[in-house]
Amino acid sequence: MKAMLTRRLALAATAALAAPAIHAQPIAGGRPVRVIVPFPPGGAVDITSRLLADKLGPVLGQPVVVENRAGAGGSLGAELVARAPADGYTLLFGAGGPLTANPVLQANIPYDVERDFRPIGLVGILPMICQVTARLPARSLTELIALMRQRDGALTVATPGSGSAAHLALELLLAGANVKATHVPYRGGSAMVADLISGTVDAGMVELPSALPLHQDGKAPIIAIATQARSPRLPGVQTFIEAGLPNFTAGSYGGVLAPAATPTEIIAKLHAALAAVLDEAATQSRINEVGAILAGPEQRTPDGFARFLRDELANARRAARLAGLSPS
User: Fold this and answer.
1) What is the torsional sign of CA 176, 182, 188, 193?
2) Most buried among 189, 218, 229, 305, using CB within 10 Å?
3) In contact, 130 and 224? CB cutoff 8 Å
């Protein structure tokens, strides 16, 4: 299965790169391009997609609009794009939930990542963080783990949904630290906000861009980040590794995909526009400001994004095995 995934994605990506790049010309007729975000407004993926859409329109020479189609941990929006006409006018701003976690954790998923999508380019990595309600007496993951052990499952931890990348990271945290907590799934990262602020839930696992404003306002402090080293944006926040979880890195991502049958010349035009936008210093600065990590130059290509998806899927399967999770 892995070899087949690699071969098919790589062939599609190579064909796209071989086509000529065309800037500032409509795909065909100039009507708006829809970018489907498979989550509610306000979350990390939505924030990043809107940043990108604002820049893509002028490069493509036609409007680019974001539409939120939430449900089933991102699977509803992903399915919409998988079944859409392959004409370049309906794209997916894909993320770790629908493209990586759901194929591993959801039974009878209504699309196939290798068969139904054609990668255009990865935009950025969204590091996973742990944050707590301000009234909880924990200001580091070390302290939160101690509280989890003390309260033996009574603490509640919110995620953007069952089967999301954050849910998978939470299960790995609990398994790695050998502690218990009660998982509270929501319909997207923005849906968690009010309950975190009020203390209805004790903690949350979510991507950094969603959590950063609450942290900066002191309403829901970030106490750990799942990266190899501390983030320059959060120098005082420990990593999961520092809290005693070896090699613990986790996150989601955002990238652009089209329906699988989209013609090569359209994929090439969309990729050229995306590459031009991501090469802009202003775009790169804004991506960093919201807490995302800009994808590397190779990852921004169809071929590089294809390899990234393959690796992420393999990592998700490994994580699910370690956490004892199976499709449901």
Assistant:
1) negative
2) 189
3) yes
Distance CA 225, CA 249 (A): 8
d(CA 82, CA 296): 26
Does residue 5 have a pLDDT over 50? no
Burial of 139 (0-12, 13-18, 19+ CB in 10 A): middle
- Rounded (10°) CA dihedral 46, 322, 242, 146: 100
Identity of residue 256: V
Backbone angles phi, psi at 213, to 5 degrees: -60, -40
Rounded CA gap, 114 and 118, in Å? 8
Using DSSP, state whether 251 is helix, strand or coil: strand
pLDDT for position 100: 92
Region 16-23 average pLDDT: 36
Least confident of 19-23, 160-164, 226-230: 19-23
Assigned token pair, 127: 């590091």
Q: Cβ atoms within 10 A of the Cβ of 213, count?
A: 14
Burial pattern 69-104, b for ≥16 Cβ within 10 A else e, equals bbbbbbbbbbbbbbebebbbbbbbbbbbbbbbbbbb
Distance CA 313, CA 222 (A): 27
d(CA 265, CA 22): 9
- Mean pLDDT to the nearest integer, 101-115: 91
Task: Select from 248, 239, 97, 102 the least CA-distant residue to 175.
Answer: 248
